[in-house]
Fold this protein.
Amino acid sequence: MLRPQDTITRERRSLNGLWAFRLDPQRIGVQERWFAGRLDQAREMAVPASFNDVAADPAVRDYCGDVWYQTHARIPRGWDGQRILLHLESATHRARVWVEDVEVAQHEGGYTPFEAEVGLHVAPGRQIRITVLVDNTLTFQSIPPGIIEDTPVGKRQRYWHDFFNYAGLHRTVWLHSTPTSYVDDITAVTDLSGSTGTVTYDVVAHADPGQEVAVILRDADGQEVARATGATGRLIVPEVHPWGPGDGYLYDLEVTLVADDETVDSYHQSLGIRTVRIDGARFLINDQPFYFTGFGKHEDIAVIGKGHNDAHLVHDFALLDWIGANSFRTSHYPYSEDVLDYADRHGIVVIDETAAVGLNMAIGGGVFGGQGYQTYSPDTVNAATQQVHAQAIRELITRDKNHPSVAIWSIANEPESDTAGAEDYFRPLFEVARDADPTRPVGFVNVMLAPHGRCRVSAFADVLMLNRYYGWYVNTGDLAAAELAWTQELQSWAGDGKPIIITEYGADTLAGLHAIGDEPWTEEYQVAYLEMNHRVFDRIDAVVGEQVWNFADFATTSGIMRVGGNKKGVFTRDRRPKAAAFALRRRWRTQTQDDL
Ligand code: BDP
C-alpha cells in the first residue's frame, strides 16, 4: 500500500473537516445500523483530532468504547473507470468502515494506515456516505495493552503506559484514485561506495500483460541521474549527494507502469541515499560515527491531543533545530507520515517505534494503577497479543521502510524483559522485524527494572537502548549517589560491545519553580540532573546517543505521580523553554559530534 498522491495518473481528495460524531456507550450502533443513514443525535467533531478534549465534556474526554464518525463526500466525476479507494492514515485503536451500507474495511492498531477499494459501491459524480466506527478500548490483546475493570461504579479503562489514551481519527482521511493497473508497493535500499550511490529497487505492480515497470531517478533539481526498466533493478548514481544528518538531500524515484510508451500509472517515491551500519560499539551513518542528540517525543498538543497539525509540526522541528537536536524517537507509537517526511527533508534521524508500550505490569501497575497482573501469561499478554504485535511491526516497517530518516526500528518500549516469558515473547518478534527489513538495526527500549545481567531480551538487539532515571525515580535529589550508580551500571552494559543510546533520562520540572539546592521539580534541578547524566555519558565510549525524556510536557492519565500530566518536558506543553532548554542548547550546539 502506498500513501495517496496526486500524480499524472492519480488524484486524492482530503476528507478532513467537521464530521458528525456520536458516542455509543451501549454498543448498539452496529445492530441498529447507524451506518445505514444519517447519524442521529450527532455533534460535530474535527478530523484530524483526538475527540477527547475537543468537546469540553468529561463524558467524551474519559470515554471508553465505540464512537461513530460520519461524513459525506462527492466522488469526482473524472474518476470514472479508475480504481477508487478510501484511505485512513490512522484510526485509534481499531476501526470498522462503511461506505453507504457496505462495510469496506476493518483495522486493528491505532497508528498505521489502511485502505479499502470502494469503487464497486460508488458512482463518480455522486455523493456518498462514509461512516467510521472507532473503538478506543485497550485489552490484553491490543497494542498497547490495557484492561477494562468492572468497578462498582462502572467500567474503567486501565493501562500501563504513561500517556493519555487519546483516540479518534488522528490523521488525514483520503479518497483517492489510481488506474486499474497500478503500482502497489515500492522498496528501495540504498548504498554508498566512495562518491557512487546505488539504489536497489523492488516494485510490486498489478499490471496487465504488455505493461512494464520503468523507473527514473531525478536529483533535487529535477535532473535525471539514472533510469531502468523492470520491476526490480539497481540504479547507479555517480557523484551522489548522500542524505545525512543535517543534510536532508532527497532524490525522486518516479515509478511508472508503461505500455507502448504510454504512462499507465506513475508514483513518486522520495529517497535519500545513505547507509546505516553498526560496527562494534559504533553507530555509523554513511560510515561516519553518529552521536544521537534529541528527545523522546509525543504527539500531544492542547485541544487536538494526538491529532496531526502542520503548524505544530513545523514549530516542533524549529525547536529541535534551535536546541541542536539531530534526532528523536517516535515514543511510543508510529507518528504521522508527515512527521517522517519532514524529518527526511531536514536530515533529522529517527528511531521509529511501534505502539508496544506498557507490556510491563510490574512497573505500570505501581505507577498508573491496574496492579496484580502478570505480564506474560495465557490470560494476559499472550500468543494472540504477540500476533497483533507482529502485525504492528510489519505495518510500521511497510509504511516507513523508504524513509532515509529512519535509522533504527524500536519494537517495544520498556516491556518486562527479565523473565523467561519475555524471552519467548520477543525472540520471534525480532525475526519478524529483520524479515521485514534486513537493512536497519533492530532494538527495543530497556527498562530500569531489567538492568545488565538480568535483561533477557537485549541479547537479541543490534543496539542497546536504555531508559534510566538515576537522580529521579532512584537516588531522588541525590545526584552524587546517582552519578556513581549510573556510571557503574552503564559500564556493565558497555561490556556487551554494542552501541548504547540513552533513550530516556529526565526529571519532572514545574516551569517557574526555583531553588538554590538540589530540589527535585525545580528548573535548576532539571539542569543539574541533565549535566550529571552528561558527565556519565561522556565517560563511556559505547554511549552513542542521548535523548532526553521528554521534548515537551504531555498529558497522562490521572494519578498521584503526575501533576497536570508528565512534566519532564524541556519545553512546556505550549512549547515554552524551561532552563534546561538553554543548557541543552549550549551542549548540543557548541560541541561537535567528536566532543560528544
Ligand atoms: C518511562 C516511560 C515513559 C514515561 C517515563 C516517565 O518509557 O513513557 O513517561 O518513564 O516516567 O518509564 O516519565
Observations:
- Residues 162, 332, 413-414, 467, 504, 549, 566, 568 surround beta-D-glucopyranuronic acid (CB under 6 Å).
- The chain has a mean pLDDT of 96.
- The chain has nine helices and 30 strands.
- The two ends are 40 Å apart (CA to CA).
